[in-house]
Amino acid sequence: MDTHSPSPEAPPSATIGLAPPRLDLSALPPRMQRELRASHVGETVAVALYDGVAGATTDPEVLRFAASHRRVEKRHLRLFEAVLPPDKRSAPMAFWRWSGRMMGGLPAWLGPSYFYAVVAGVEAWVDGHYARQIALARKLAPDPALLNLLEACRLDERLHARDAARLDPAPLWAARALAGLAVFLSRVGVRAARWV
Ligand SMILES: [Fe+2]
């Protein structure tokens, strides 16, 4: 998988130039369709998370981090939008976007340690979420283009987690607690998004 060299403005990304897979969604097992719906919600929340940072902090490093990672999450979202037509997406999109803004805005407002801890925790969890989806897709829908999309997104999320952990390798205990709560809510959200 080709990745690009890191820079502050353009983080390395496995999804640069990636074309969306041409999938016959109705031919996929319902379980896989639900998984893709959950990932579309996850990417929507990710973009909103970074949107939520803008009005919540004036810390230049946090703002730069959020802006550069938002570009990658927006690319992920466009890829999933190309796969999933509107009638197959989760219904309460306004709620998901609000949740994402809270998940980014609150920790950014509390301070950089909180923000980086939440991003590191959530993105590491999303890395595992994609790994589980890849294992499932190999069994249920081993389409090479779909596997490639999931793997490229997984690599990007892993890089985001590492970027955040590098910026604050020893977060405050309260920041770790908030990150734990954000991971718990992400887990609940993904489960809900498979069905609503
Ligand atoms: Fe993403």
TrEMBL record:
Tell me the pathway.
Answer: Cofactor biosynthesis; ubiquinone biosynthesis
Q: Which domain of life is it from?
A: Bacteria
Q: Where is this region: Disordered?
A: 1-20
A Pfam family: COQ7
Identification of the protein by name: Demethoxyubiquinone hydroxylase family protein
Task: Name the keywords, alphabetized.
Answer: Iron, Membrane, Metal-binding, Monooxygenase, Oxidoreductase, Ubiquinone biosynthesis
Q: Species name for this entry? A: Azospirillum himalayense
**Coiled coil (UniProt feature):** none
